[in-house]
Amino acid sequence: MALNSITVRVPAKVNLQLSVGPRESNGYHNLVSVFQAVSIFDEVTISKSHAGSGVTIAVTGDQTHGVPEDGSNLAVKAAQLIGDKFDLDVDVHIEIKKSIPVAGGMAGGSADAAATLIAMDALFRLEASREELLDLASQLGSDVPFMIAGGTAVGTGRGDQLTAALSRGTYHWVFALSTVGLSTPAVYAECDRMRAELEVAEPRVSDALMQALLTGNPTAVGEALTNDLQNPACSLRPALSLVLEVGRDYGALGAIVSGSGPTVAFLVADEEAGLDLAVALTASGVVGSVARATGPVHGARVI
Ligand code: ATP
């Protein structure tokens, strides 16, 4: 019997390194992005609906504020893109159960797009190759291929040319969440503004980070975390500097703004240290809410 609905679980990401090259004439920046998939998950369910009904969408869960329920949702664009490629009449309903913070620098929209590609492939038995799926993913956004791949990976180009990174062990994270998101284009614009007078080098993968991941040493990984968008994000949202400081004071091994922010990620030694830091951050009053997670985890996967 043909299946009428498929659910895919997809993780959030944190950037262990985000290095931003000079602004190109087309407005883009070459990136080196070291991604780790972490255990905060959205669930995307795609169901077949009546012929002619097109793509409909509903968003549920604890993170729905600011997520569009129309054609501008990246999941709808993903369904249409894979439909065009495989000549399908795309009459589907997409339900996104969201737990990934919205506009938080954790690639929630990209994650939902990746999940949609995997769900559509399974639902319509398209048997698309991995390369075809990754190619469609990169057309939807530079973080989308990684949300299919998961694990730990280095992204170059716009961040979408992926190579798996060798990483040992499990990493424990505490995330300080903000109720109001930051716009990724606004953070890049602030980055360009702050660097206007500077000579900016092409980005390179951090040897210190690769070595730390290879040996599975969380202290060394904590010390090697870098993000060129951290200062711009803090410039637009000065309260983030205080959040970073509070986490460091409470013994985090590393503290970094996640992607374009405003989520702040703290790497801690183990689960117990994560619990302690979560309590301390909440009690400090400088953080709205916290989430704990581990990584690396798998990418978008049918459940
Ligand atoms: P990134 O880390 O890739 O820069 P982000 O985590 O900062 O992204 P998202 O959560 O992906 O940001 O959301 C950015 C904007 O994209 C939202 O404010 C919303 O308007 C829009 N959007 C479109 N589709 C989605 C989706 N499925 N989930 C969340 N936001 C979406």
Automatic annotation (TrEMBL):
It comes from freshwater metagenome. Residues 209-283 form the GHMP kinase C-terminal domain. Coiled coil: none annotated. Signal peptide: none annotated. The keyword Nucleotide-binding applies. One of its GO terms (molecular function) is ATP binding. Keywords: ATP-binding, Kinase, Nucleotide-binding, Transferase. It is an enzyme of class 2 (transferase). This is 4-(cytidine 5'-diphospho)-2-C-methyl-D-erythritol kinase. Residues 73-151 form the GHMP kinase N-terminal domain.
